[in-house]
Structures are given as structure tokens and as C-alpha cells.
Amino acid sequence: MVWTKKAARLAALLVVPVVVIACSISYKFNGSSINYDKVKSISITDFPIKSDYVYAPLATKFNEDLKDIFIRQTRLKVLKPSQNADLQIDGTITGYNQYNQAVSASGYASETKLTITVSVNFVNNTNHAEDFTNKQFSAFRTYDSSQLLTAVQDGLIAEMTKEITDQIFNATVANW
After folding, report:
1. Any idea where the domains of the chain sit in the sequence?
2. Which of 80, 152, 160, 174 minimizes the number of CB atoms within 10 Å of its CB?
3. What is the rounded CA–CA span in Å between residue 54 and residue 69?
4. Three-state secondary-structure class, residue 153
5. CATH dotted code for 31-174
6. Burial of 160 by CB count in 10 Å (0-12 exposed, 13-18 middle, 19+ buried)?
7. How far is 70 from 173, CA to CA, in rounded Å?
8. Phi–psi pair at 133, nearest 5 degrees
9. pLDDT, position 10
10. Using an 8 Å Cβ cutoff, are 43 and 78 in contact?
């Protein structure tokens, strides 16, 4: 069979996209460095609030966000804390505090700083050299003191729990 230039170009146009699609490489930039041959499961215990000031929705939001980051960014099977998982995370919310951050010329607070602190225990049953106990993670946000905490805290908590859960993720499975 004799190929004409037009037929050769048409064949090349059909073959090249198939080759490019078939040879594409997928990268995942979530930062995890998990050896899935060894590590297959994780258990995450709910973190209770043990701070002087308690805002009940904080525990729910934090616990959901912590489990969610591992579900979304890894292939680990999430087990109940009573089961023997390869990775185990537990801890407490040790601080939920607000402080006056800045004072205006009138002598009143102009900014307030809201801080969340979490103490985390991590056990890697496949490599105990990576274990840690009572490691502190925290995040803070400032807000205008003319606003009530009740008006801004849900939004600030959402931002801070995301930041803290990212820190915990990086410290446990990203090896940063």
C-alpha cells in the first residue's frame, strides 16, 4: 500500500493524540510521602476541648476537617480508634483564647487576636522513629475589636482549623 502525503499526515494526527494521552503522567502535589505498600490504614480519635474557654462547634469542625484531609489527600483506609491502624492520631484542643492585640489612641482595644492550640500524639506502627507525643500546633487570626466574637468566630475557626489540620498532615505523612 502506497501512502500519500495527505494520508500520512492524517494518520499522524490520529496517532499523536492517542500516544500523548496514553503516555501522560499524573502527579499529585499534596505533599504526602506515604509508602502504601507498608501503610494502609489510619485511625483518628476525636479531639476533645480541654481549654478554659469552650466553644462546642470548634471540636466538631476540627474533628471533621482533620479526618477529611486524610480522606481527600491519601488512599489510607480510615479505621475506628479501637482498631489497630498503621497510623494513629489523637490529642486535645488545649487552647481557644482571645487577647487584645492592639490599643487605639482612645485607650480601647482596636484588634483582638483569637488563637487555637492543639496537642497531638502520633504513632506510626510501621516506623516508630516518626512517632511524636504532645506536639503543639496552633493558628491565630486577628479581628477588629468593634466586632463581637460571636459574629466572626465561625469564619475564623474555619480558617484556623484548615491551617492546623494542614500542619498536622504535613507533620505526620508529608515528613516536612
Report:
1. 31-174
2. 80
3. 24
4. helix
5. 3.30.160.150
6. buried
7. 9
8. -130, 140
9. 61
10. yes
Tell me, what's the pLDDT at 76?
A: 95
Report, as ranges of residue numbers, the positions in the chain whose pLDDT lies below 50. 19-30
Q: Cell numbers at residue 24, please?
A: 501522560
Between CA 78 and CA 133 the distance in angstroms is 21
Cell 481549654 sits on residue: 51
> For residue 102, what are the β-bridge partners?
111
Contact 34, 124 (CB under 8 A): no
Cα–Cα distances in angstroms (integers) from residue 107 to residues 100, 102, 143, 144, 148, in the given order:
12, 10, 17, 15, 18
Place of cell 476540627: 62
Residues 6+ positions from 72 with CB-CB distance below 8 Å:
none
CB neighbours (10 Å) of residue 154?
12
Locus of grid cell 492517542: 18
Query: Hey, what's the torsion of the CAs at 149, 151, 155, 156, to 10 degrees?
Result: -20
Contact at 8 Å (CB) between 4 and 40? no
Q: What is the pLDDT of residues 40-52, one digit of tens each?
A: 999 999 999 999 9
